[in-house]
Amino acid sequence: MIMSGLCDVCADLTLQRPANDPQGNTPITVVSHHESLAALKKCFDSKSCAVCHLFWTGITGKLDDENIAAYLENKIPLPDGTGLVLVIDWQGPAPESLSDPRQFIHRWLVFDIFASLVAGTLLRGRDSSWPGEDQQRTITAQKWLENCYEYHPRCGGKDPMPMPTRVIDLGAPEGKSRPRLLITNGVKGRYVALSYCWGTGRGIHKLKLRTETLYDFQVAIDEQLMTRAHREGLQIARELGYQYIWIDALCIIQGSDSLSRDDWAREAIRIPQVYGNAELTIVAGRSEDSRNGFISATYKPAAPPASLRCVLPGVDQSTDLWLGLKRSRDIGPTDQRAWCFQESILSRRIISYNKEQLSFKCREREDHEDGHWNFHGRYDGWYDLITNPTFPLFAEPVFQRWYELTMEYSKRSFFDPTDNFAALSGVALQFQKAVALKHSNTRYLAGLWEVDMIGGLLWRSARIIDPSQKPLCQPTAVSGPSTGESIVIAPSWSWMSLVGPIRQGKGEHDIPILVHEKDSFHCFPANPNGKTWSSHDWHPSMVKYEDLPLPFPLQAKGHIRKLRCSKCPTFTYHGFSAWQYKREHLVQIAILMEAAENQAVDVVNSTTYHQIIALGQFDLDQSHPVECWALRLTTHEGLLLEQRAEGSFARLGVFVITMANHAYFDSPRAPLMSFSLI
């Protein structure tokens, strides 16, 4: 039931916006409300006041039942009997990194504020997803864009840039031309790109570019036959005054024949230029299916907005000031999709239709419709890695940034796991330029960089940090005769061989492994020059599954010992290792490892604990082997392996040597040997 009435307390309120001070700032307004939480609840129970209904719903969503009961029973008295107050920040929230001006309040709850269109230019926070709010949506987006054009030189201005192979030409913004496909031949122009989730199932796009429609599309495209997300992308481009838009399904030839697959492969590796040259990327964040569109939000707040009277400077009559529950700033389904990952990283500017509100992001800052903003320019390592060889943020910025991105990418989902390399190819190609700024060796090998191979090999399941994370699993085919069966999409030593979230690099609980720490390495390339791990190439531009150079062995030399998985539970071991993960996580995830040549340990105690050689974490959660091989990579860590043939091993997981057993891998019984990792 939607209430429109007000109680006596709310009916007597008229919010007066004060004039700006000499510095141009508007003072915060504090207005008394009900004298207690009990009084607010009484009004809520009476179902007579829309504002109190909104406030009570917000409070019960913020505090647990125990805290609410304590306030109602006055076990937690409000300071000095102040009662409830409304605090209106007319300029919008401060950036989240700064202290909040409401910190002096005992407990506070944030609501969005927004007003009618006349007043809306003075107040942040309006919800542009409401029906009929197209004008407000456009005003908000244009304001963000103009601010970026004027103050953010790192974002590239609005000069025409080389356009993709094909774009959709909408005609002059003021005209009513039918859209058509334009073959650009490298011409420069100002265009936008669309980033969205296709969805699943058949018939996702009734209209898409095919070899047989390539000519017809250049004459005209029937807009009414387009998927709804495509139509809405065209609508937004027109509203913002753009003539050209790039949409993958309409600009890359779709199909399973060889000509279509070749076109897809060529265009897939041009993604960095497509999104990097686009003046703006439109992200359909809130939609998991392109058939549903994305302009209108589908979320429903727990309580509807309510209004109070408000008087603004220079306005004779009062207007309605609307209050709404705080909206989420989560992006939505596109933030879970692998293909959308590199699109968001490579874009210069993004207007995102998020789960519950509109947002804008560029290389300098991020703005949300509710007024929140963050300045992140100088901390955005991606841009500086490519343009600034002296970028000082990390000791090894290239690889640390790479590991941060691969960890994030590994969380994303695929409809077809064979797209794994294609969906990261743009980022990999750009990173290759960054690697070249500091290293002569820029070889990319199936998701790892040869110059940092040891660090790259030491990835692991993210469950060691958070056991609630999804376990790693084998990829499965989604089409063809082997549909539903496990498939090989990468060598076992690559994190891209499995599906699921990983840990890599140097996190809070991880052992830092960097290129300059070579003195701690115990595994090396078997190539005579001591630098090349493989005689084969796996370039970032290799994106078609059928063209991947599998199998792809690494030729290495190192010390390998045979270990046995202990029958003793991990919680019985209290020795030390270099792993700094939480003990409760180790107990749940790690396996105790013993020397296979020794008698099995029945009980871990003060006389047997030294027989625990290592703690192991297997990549896959299913039953682990009784015995496996262990390859030491660094002073502390190494890989668990399965022998496939003489001198050939596949990865099973990672291990850390316990503090009492580092000499075990230096034993004469573990001579230096050459082998293949497959």
TrEMBL record:
Heterokaryon incompatibility domain segment(s): 191-343
InterPro entries hit by this protein: HET
Pfam (any one): HET
Protein's name in the database: Heterokaryon incompatibility domain-containing protein
